[in-house]
Amino acid sequence: MSFDVFLQSFGPTTPEQSTAVRAFLDPLLDERRHRVLTPDGDMAVYGLDDEPLDGLMFARITGELAWDVVVHAARVGGWVVVVPGAPCVLVEPGQVDSVPADVVRTLGVVTARSGPELRAVLTSS
Asked: Does pTM top 0.85 for this prediction?
């Protein structure tokens, strides 16, 4: 099963958050900076060159460890995880205050603090 996974901010992303996300992902990127590589898989990444860096999209995710990368990138960026057809996924419980009420009402909100938890949310939706 393949998902397009969006990391999104509902508020401004600071330059420090952008720098931290790039610093986290840089050692995991292929030479063209289009794929994140993990020991057991990989995934395409879109949006790293955007300024300001206020979100990312991951696609064609393979392996188990890539899901942990998604969650950690969201945490570092202060972003939530949005996947069409699934609830809005918080990576920190306190993020619920940043999500617009209409998103909470329409999509619902759940928390996933690890890659396996995120994957479980998405495969059960």
From this structure: yes
